[in-house]
DNA sequence: CATTATATGGTGCGACTGTTTCAAGAACGG
DNA sequence: CCGTTCTTGAAACAGTCGCACCATATAATG
């Protein structure tokens, strides 16, 4: 007996906290401003998530979940060519709407360089792409279990995202992807 | 008259502070632990640098200076081929001794995504490579002022560094660079 | 009503942060 | 010696941080 628990509240808080982190970044995240922006209290955040660390972990998981869903919605199930697939990924990832996700992605990576213990499944964020990409690029790959081609393809994407987020030069980065497509085609 | 100033002290402090930041990262940097590790006091750090912000700026400038010097020492003045040049850059940047610099590089980029105003010359860290790289890759480039090929080349390097620092998989990243060289060659 | 469980506000603790203030020490010239 | 300038220590200030403790409110069962 007693008052029944309300798991929906935690979920709603998590969703809005994820919005907040995507908007403001992870680096300076603090419970009190976050709580105020969410119309709740630091007390409740700790009540729901146990600690700040666990809250952050939940937010990152939620952000990953959202990103995966959106990507799955966007990419064609079977692209006509590797080039088309690659252009699709670049168009999706470099779109301004994805900027908050990209920033969070780079923030997590940078923090993971100093505190790897906090992000145990970070490598999986890279290797997880291999099955999908390996299939999409099998024409230009070296075999069914080729991880090298996906590695290079994602390196180009991430490297160009790094450039784009730093310089803001969309034209030049777009052209660089064109050039990579050209190299792949030959 | 009066006691003469001692500019050497500031320089020595800056050098050792740069060591410290390279070793411990920029994210959690705090004056008191830094001062203690340097055998000085927060009071003196502020006396010498004015504020934490200015100290950080000085440390980043010093780190850039060191990196540039080391790279200039390592790279051959004129490589036999673009491929050899590219392999030289990758070997140098991915070497374990460069890990502290690479981490600092990624940390600055990530922080710059949230606080661009703090890093006014960040774009120059990317575009500054173009003259040098454009010359080295003129055989495979599109012209004398080609910025697209250098953009792609550095994107591959940075993207693979991202992968390497996350997964630690040197073999796979080395192979991916081989693959990129192969694409360039054809 | 009482009981029992969850939900929530308020308050404060201890440890940090960058920075300032005040005072004293240390090295020079006259 | 004095005066001047640079250097340095100790302490405090005002703020933030995550988090814990305690009381109370709320909603269910009996």
TrEMBL record, chains A, B:
GO terms for molecular function: DNA-binding transcription factor activity; transcription cis-regulatory region binding. The keyword Ligase does not apply. Residues 30-49 bind DNA. Keywords: DNA-binding, Transcription, Transcription regulation. It holds the Pfam family TetR_N. Residues 7-67 form the HTH tetR-type domain. InterPro entries: Homeodomain-like_sf, HTH-type_TetR-like_transc_reg, HTH_TetR. This is HTH tetR-type domain-containing protein. It comes from Streptomyces rubellomurinus (strain ATCC 31215).
